[in-house]
């Protein structure tokens, strides 16, 4: 059964509500914040992803899984054809296209939620948008040396998720180092937002920020970023958080991938409290429940002094 979404939580001061409103556009889709957080369901069309590699490698299996995620409450579907787990070897453009394009073509006419393409390759992003995707989840944003991906996003008016990473997946966990990880990720966002707006022509309404949990970070770096999430809301862009089943949980708690849901939900709840608006997850129904319960508590008058408070009590 599909989870019933609660009413959008409002702000007591109507004038303040107008001032604090934030818009995210992705082609024909538009989301206005404040609103309940968006849950992004993961569809890995890969043989080697760390959590579910090989389960949905055929287009038909991937489509069935994606439709199930929407039924469970996913607001966005994130389709990926190349594993970005630590140590993963890159795949060719041809292979990635062969994995994801049939899935997107079959899904697009069947769903009313945005489809995101999780990729590092501009050609894959372009083909995915032409097949029906509305968002580019650019896991290679931090290593780009030209504006090709940004120009594609601007040309198609697609949503653009700018993710931080220190190096490519194959080598990113070999020796990640920062003087101050929160400051350095913030500096990256400042630089990249300025470039997108002033040099590439991507409107800020199309941009989402992702700190890149697990992408070139130690356990301590990931914990510091989660503790400092509030600082990344100052750009007034939606903040995406992806912690689902990731290996930093194993490093702290010594649990295998299939037992990491409780810790994933704990991080998700804290991230929502800190202002994250998009939650990327393998476990959609559990995440929807955790996020909606968090939002219900934050909407109560007693939450007025909590950081990340969503506003006054909703109607109903």
The count of β-strands is: 10
CATH level-3 fold name: TIM Barrel
Rg (CA only): 18 Å
CATH architecture field: Alpha-Beta Barrel
Helix content: 25-40%
The parts where pLDDT drops under 50 for at least 5 residues are 1-18, 308-316
Number of domains: 1
**Number of discrete helical segments:** 10
Give the strand line-up of the largest sheet: 3-4-5-6-7-8-9-10
Overall mean pLDDT: 88
Distance between the termini: 22 Å
Structural class: alpha/beta
Oligomeric form:
single chain
Described by strand count, sense and barrel closure, the largest sheet is: 8 strands, parallel, barrel
Which range does the strand content fall in? Answer: 15-25%
Query: What is the string of SSEs from the N terminus onward?
Result: HEEEHEHEHEHEHEHEHHEH
Give a structural overview:
The strands form two sheets. The protein has an eight-stranded parallel barrel with strand order 3-4-5-6-7-8-9-10, surrounded by seven helices. The chain has a two-stranded antiparallel sheet with strand order 1-2. It has one domain: Dihydropteroate synthase-like (TIM Barrel), CATH 3.20.20.20. It contains ten helices and ten strands. α5 links the parallel β6 and β7. The N terminus and C terminus are likely disordered.
């Amino acid at each position: 059964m599909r989870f019933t979404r609660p009413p959008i939580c409002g702000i007591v001061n109507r004038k303040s509500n107008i001032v604090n409103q934030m818009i995210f556009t992705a082609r024909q889709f538009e989301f206005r914040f404040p609103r309940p957080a968006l849950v992004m369901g993961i569809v890995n069309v890969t043989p080697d992803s760390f959590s579910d590699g090989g389960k949905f490698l055929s287009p038909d299996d991937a489509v069935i899984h994606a439709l199930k995620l929407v039924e469970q409450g996913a607001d966005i579907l994130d389709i990926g054809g190349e594993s970005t787990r630590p140590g993963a070897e890159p795949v060719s453009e041809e292979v990635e296209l062969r994995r994801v394009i049939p899935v997107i073509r079959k899904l697009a006419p069947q769903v009313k939620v945005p489809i995101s393409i999780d990729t590092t390759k501009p050609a894959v992003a372009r083909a995915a948008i032409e097949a029906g995707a509305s968002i580019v989840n650019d896991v290679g944003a931090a290593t780009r040396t030209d504006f090709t991906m940004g120009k594609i996003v601007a040309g198609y008016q697609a949503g653009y998720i700018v993710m931080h990473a220190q190096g490519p997946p194959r080598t990113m966990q070999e020796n990640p180092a920062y003087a101050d990880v929160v400051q350095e990720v913030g500096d990256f966002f400042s630089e990249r937002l300025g470039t997108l707006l002033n040099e590439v022509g991507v409107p800020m309404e199309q941009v989402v920020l992702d700190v890149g949990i697990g992408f070139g970070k130690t356990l301590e770096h990931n914990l510091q970023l989660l503790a400092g999430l509030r600082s990344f809301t100052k750009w007034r862009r939606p903040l995406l958080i992806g912690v689902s089943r990731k290996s930093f949980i194993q490093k702290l708690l010594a649990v295998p991938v299939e037992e990491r849901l409780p810790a994933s939900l704990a991080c998700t709840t804290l991230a929502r409290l800190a202002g994250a608006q998009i939650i990327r997850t393998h476990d959609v129904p559990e995440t929807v429940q955790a996020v909606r319960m968090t939002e219900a508590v934050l909407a109560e008058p007693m939450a007025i002094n909590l950081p990340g408070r969503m506003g006054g009590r909703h109607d109903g």
